[in-house]
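INFO  loader      accepted 1 record
INFO  loader      residues=176
INFO  predictor   begin
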Amino acid sequence: MPIYTVHAPVGNGADLAATDKFTFVRDGFHFWAAALTIIWLVWHRLWLALIGWVVVTVAIQFAMAALGAGGGTILFADVLISILMGFEAASLQRWTLSRRRWRQLDIVVADDEESAERRFFDRWTAKQRGLTNDQWAVDRGAPPPTRNIPGQPFSKPPPLPQGGIIGLFPEPGGPR
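INFO  predictor   done
INFO  writer      dumping tokens
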């Protein structure tokens, strides 16, 4: 199933008046970004990514021509760059949104964008009744939970299996 990330502009806040500005970015391969890169980048207004793509493509073209590569080799390199663009298109969209000071609100798994919107807004309205926006937004700045801090989800050590050790060695420091 496709995964969508939901983004909202920071200035307007994430309230019912700003829901029309929420953006859903599908993760995965984007065929049109690979097939028609320049048009796709302009359509999505990814200007820095467009400039970077043009610079990289022209630099590779000139470098390969200077090294004496044939036309087939240059075409193969162009196809590889296009495939890479198709795979990284969603990351470029998220990067541009974060540069524009949008924040990621949620991650939704759904079959299509309409289902993702329905699923997100069902959860979002339920959370709005009990929580503030800052409490349910995805926090990317917090450190992951650790095992050494009491009260964290991983505060107790994991259980050992019946034999005591899993792996190729029956005991720590034993014969190999």
